[in-house]
Design goal:
The complex is a heterodimer of chains A (466) and B (475). Chain A has 466 residues and is α+β, with helices and mostly antiparallel strands. Chain A is built from 13 helices and 17 strands. Chain A has four domains: 110 residues, no CATH class; 116 residues; 95 residues, OB fold (Dihydrolipoamide Acetyltransferase, E2P), CATH 2.40.50; 86 residues, OB fold (Dihydrolipoamide Acetyltransferase, E2P) (Beta Barrel). In chain A, the strands form four sheets. Chain A has a five-stranded mixed sheet, with helices on one face. In chain A, strands 8-7-6-9-10 form a five-stranded antiparallel sheet. With 475 residues, chain B is mainly α. Chain B is built from 24 helices and two strands. Chain B has a two-stranded antiparallel sheet with strand order 1-2. In chain B, strand 1 and strand 2 form a beta hairpin. Classes of the chains: A alpha+beta (466), B mainly alpha (475). At the A-B interface, helix 4, helix 6, helix 7, helix 10 and helix 13 of A face helix 1, helix 3, helix 4, helix 6 and helix 22 of B.
């Protein structure tokens, strides 16, 4: 396995990429660095600005590469950083015989080496490893007056935003009242157009997150049968009313701000002393990838705490432009790892960041949560709604059960030997194979109308259902 | 939520659907909570309460009947250990079509494992899956038949055409006469295309009892249906509308009889030169319609004598047609005789045995594969062999001859087609090799220049990882 700095210099798209890559050569940025000498591959996970670390792989044989980051530079700084470590500190890589599945996936998808254009013998003109290695110039020191001016400007911006959002919520209230007056039958029929209009107004008035949620409302309704749509519209619009009221009462509440206007940055969450931190073993339950109407793709990775005695979940949420093309996830369903997660402050902490990855965990079953088969499988959802009635999706662990079909071939999760006849409708279609399996426990998202299955434990082991 | 609140919620819901102010229709307790100075605000507050009631207090109405499938049968072999499933999935992903995927599955079964059903599941119509999967094929078929487990003239219209065809195929397997009568009754009312697909099902379990029905199709309105019935009659030793001797007599016209040898004169048979593409096509049809035994009898010789006398190598197309005819209608003895004759001839002619593979015993199959490897003239032919056992080719077989040298040249070739051919050979060896040979072969082809991460090595890596004798912990 041979890597030299000249190759990196030649492959780098520009000097800025080399500079950025130089900053990523610290070992602490890479929770995982591995190599398979037989295959000539090096790969790693680099903690970037997203919730998930980026997965980076480089083929030292033909200089093929892949990174899960949304950068449009090829190769990106993460690839260059990985190569750089490979060239200068190969001992940092753990030698392994097996490649992870995400590497196998990439190998299976990539173009054949014969069809691939040979690595360009690009002239390193204008790009220099030496220059990139030099420590950056320190930023000029601000004087006290400048600091005060900057902070005053920040305060003014925050006040302007708050006024704008308040106006946005006034418009939203009026819009909801209009929908009730005009009738929900008409709203359901013209939902797409009406939601688009109010969402655009909310964006103008800086209630960006709320606009995104309303933009997704038509898709949520479309997924339901026509007789269910009015109830779903009442639920969704009612939650918006509650959210608007909550924000007016507590405009500085971090959770409400996140749901109405904008989210904190990764750095702000990590620096927040009130953010809940949990160090535990986690299993990736599944992924939910949705292309939104605003052109963004939301990528949610749901995790289950394998140590907690009651079901505890986390979701790593990333957004990237749909135009950036298909991205593979940072984790694959079924992956298990030890990590310290930092949760975004919330009444029901769910959204989290991986603060520190502490190694892999061996495969196994889920903890025995002693779920009550005869009880209400949605008891956790009711408690969740008590705390934050404006939220829609809630992760649940369902007790022993099976998937059955109704007369229209719609899938339902049904509790095993259930005396109360409890059954919950499942979103979308399910694999025929699943219909023949007993599910010892099932992880799913409940949105008030449908279950979105994530994973199950069964007699034949773990089942990926997302 | 009490009954009054439920009734109130229903009134609000109905009112909001059509539109207007509904405050007066709300339950008394809700009105107290929602009271406000503005009518719009009152409605919004009611909406929030209703939303919570719908979310928390009500559950989706469960349908009266929910159908559960029978449990997925447990197969006779253990499932592939989790640690090997990524390799399996990689090999399946790279397998371009159902035939190649079937090879992956056969290799796994040959090492004593079955796949996880979420990784690979045979289709209801799968006839190539290893026998161990039969319970899953039946389980799948029972699902596709749906509620009407047994198709009948009465419920014929209840199913969509594809589901009906699957049900009919299942019926043909279990009760061929009932299925035939059903086709006989229902096919005349269908379009020509549908009739053709229905009559095609008679191939399943084709037997002498089907003869009268097939003969009756000589009067069908569609030429394609008549032709199909004629072919099936030929398989049964019967002949269609033209009478029993017509195809063989016509085919004999395309074959020249001659003599060879100075001391021991013997009779030879060879293809007459065709004058046009139309003649070539007709000859192909006649080979398909005729039986070997009838053709040999036409020339007054036995099947074996006819094969011995055939001049292989004169016309490749005619050789292929003959091989197909032998495998379709020849006796077991004739098939073996032809295989031995071709293998003894060696060279390109021996490759014709590939057409006979499905009816050859394991020993003869392996002899042919070894010969292809040793000659190394046409290593790409390996990929055409079908119905061969997995995982028996050892390192001596691979290294005995010029095979590895030829393969190395292919891998390092500059031309894409040559490289692609080499990769296909590597993939085929991934299926045929023993685990030990697979591991050594990987080193060999990587040293020859195949990228170590090439997906073409997927099946070899799975093969090498599948121990010949899996440990108890893997079972």
């Amino acid at each position: 396995m041979q890597l030299d700095l000249k190759t990196i210099e030649a492959l780098a798209p520009d000097q800025a990429s080399l500079g950025a890559a130089a900053k990523l050569t610290k070992r602490s940025n890479w929770p995982r660095l591995e190599m398979n000498e037989q295959l000539g591959l090096i790969w790693g996970e680099c903690q970037g600005s997203g919730s998930n670390p980026y997965r980076v792989v480089f083929d030292t044989g033909d200089h093929g590469y892949k990174c899960t980051c949304p950068s449009r530079k090829f190769p990106c700084k993460h690839i260059l950083g990985l190569m750089w470590i490979g060239a200068t500190a190969p001992a940092s890589f753990d030698r392994v015989d097996q490649t992870p599945e995400w590497v196998n996936d990439w190998l299976g998808r990539r173009r054949k080496p014969g069809q691939q254009s040979a690595p360009t013998a690009a002239s390193p003109e204008g790009k220099s490893i030496d220059e990139a290695s030099r420590p950056g110039q320190s930023a000029p020191v601000e004087d006290a007056a400048a600091v005060e001016r900057r902070e005053a400007a920040q305060r003014k911006r925050a006040e302007d935003t708050r006024s704008a959002v308040s106006a946005a919520l006034d418009e939203l209230d009026q819009w909801i009242a209009d929908q009730l007056r005009l009738g929900l039958a008409g709203f359901v029929d013209a939902c797409s157009e009406r939601c688009r209009r109010i969402a655009a107004r909310l964006v103008d008035l800086k209630a960006t997150a709320l606009a995104g949620r309303i933009d997704e409302l038509p898709a949520r309704l479309m997924a339901l049968r026509s007789e269910e749509k009015p109830d779903a519209a009442i639920r969704e619009l009612g939650k918006l009313v509650l959210l608007a009221k909550a924000w007016r009462a507590m405009p500085n509440d971090a959770e409400l701000k996140r749901l109405v206007s904008t989210s904190e940055t990764r750095e702000q969450v990590l620096a927040n002393p009130q953010a809940v931190q949990v160090e535990s073993d986690w299993e990736v339950l599944g992924e939910k990838i949705e292309t939104r109407r605003d052109g963004l793709v939301s990528h949610a990775t749901w995790l289950l705490d394998l140590v907690s005695s009651t079901p505890r979940f986390a979701v790593l949420l990333d957004f990237f432009p749909a135009s950036a093309g298909r991205r593979s996830g940072a984790f694959a369903p079924g992956d298990r790892f030890k990590a310290r997660l930092v949760f975004y402050p919330s009444r029901n902490p769910l959204r989290a960041l991986v603060a520190e990855r502490l190694g892999d965990v061996s495969p196994g079953t889920w903890p025995d949560f002693t779920l009550d088969v005869a009880g209400d499988p949605l008891a956790a959802y009711a408690a969740f709604q008590d705390d934050a009635p404006w939220l829609a999706d809630c992760p649940v662990i369902l007790p022993r059960g099976a998937i059955a079909l109704d007369e229209k071939d719609g899938a339902w999760w049904q509790a095993a030997n259930d005396p109360h006849g409890i059954a919950l409708p499942v979103a979308g279609s399910v694999s025929q194979t699943l219909l023949g399996l007993d599910l010892a426990a099932t992880a799913a998202l409940w949105n008030g109308a449908r279950l979105e299955l994530l994973a199950s434990q069964s007699s034949i082991g773990r089942l990926d259902l997302s | 939520m009490n009954e009054l609140e439920q009734a109130g919620l229903a009134r609000l819901r109905d009112g909001w659907i059509s539109g207007g102010a509904m405050f007066e229709l709300a339950p008394v307790e809700w009105k107290e909570v929602a009271a406000a100075s503005s009518p719009d605000e009152q409605e919004r507050r009611l909406l929030a309460i209703a939303a919570q009631a719908l979310d928390v207090a009500l559950r989706p109405a469960v349908p009266k009947t929910l159908k559960r499938r029978p449990p997925l049968p447990v197969l006779a072999l253990p499932m592939l250990p989790d640690r090997l499933r990524p390799l399996l999935r990689a090999a399946l992903k790279h397998a371009a079509d159902a035939r190649r995927k079937a090879l992956v599955v056969k290799l796994v079964a040959s090492r004593g494992f079955v796949t996880h059903p979420m990784d690979w599941m045979p289709a209801a119509t799968d006839q190539t899956a290893p026998d161990v999967y039969a319970p899953w094929v039946d389980w799948q078929a029972s699902a596709e038949q749906g509620p009407h487990e047994k198709l009948s003239a009465e419920n014929w219209a209840d199913s969509y055409p594809a589901a009906r065809r699957v049900a009919l195929a299942a019926l043909r397997r279990s009760e061929p006469a009932v299925a035939r009568r059903l086709i006989e009754t229902k096919a005349p009312a269908e379009s020509a295309e549908t009739r053709l697909s229905l009559v095609e099902l008679i191939r399943i379990g084709l037997g002498p009892d089907d003869t009268p029905f097939l003969k009756s199709l000589a009067a069908d309105r569609s030429g394609k249906v008549r032709e199909l019935a004629g072919r099936m009659l030929a398989m049964l030793g019967e002949h269609g509308e033209g009478g029993p001797d017509v195809p063989v007599a016509e085919l004999a016209g395309f074959i020249e009889e001659g003599k060879a040898g100075f001391i021991r004169r013997r009779t030879t048979f060879g293809p007459a030169k065709t004058k046009s593409h139309v003649q070539e096509q007709r000859r192909a049809e006649l080979f398909e319609l005729s039986n070997l035994v009838d053709l040999a009898a036409r020339f007054g010789v036995t099947e074996a004598d006819f094969i011995t006398g055939w001049q292989f190598g004169t016309d490749n197309n005619a050789d292929v047609h003959l091989a197909r005819m032998v495998v379709a209608s020849g006796s077991d003895g004739a098939v073996v005789h032809m295989a031995d004759t071709l293998i003894a001839a060696g060279g390109k002619t021996a490759l014709l045995v590939l057409h006979l593979m499905p009816r050859l015993d394991t020993g003869r199959q392996r002899v042919l594969i070894r010969q292809i490897l040793k000659d190394a003239q046409f290593p790409a032919a390996l990929g055409q062999a079908q119905g061969i056992d997995a995982g028996w080719l050892d390192w001596d077989d691979l290294s005995n001859g010029r095979f590895l040298a030829v393969l190395r040249n292919g891998i390092s070739a500059k031309e894409d087609p040559a490289r692609r051919t080499a990769e296909e050979i590597v993939e085929t060896v991934g299926y045929l090799a023993t685990a030990t040979a697979a591991a050594r072969f990987i080193d060999e082809v990587v040293a020859a220049g195949l990228p170590p991460a090439s997906p073409s090595l997927g099946l070899l890596r799975l093969n090498a990882a599948l121990a010949e004798n899996p440990s108890q912990s893997d079972r």
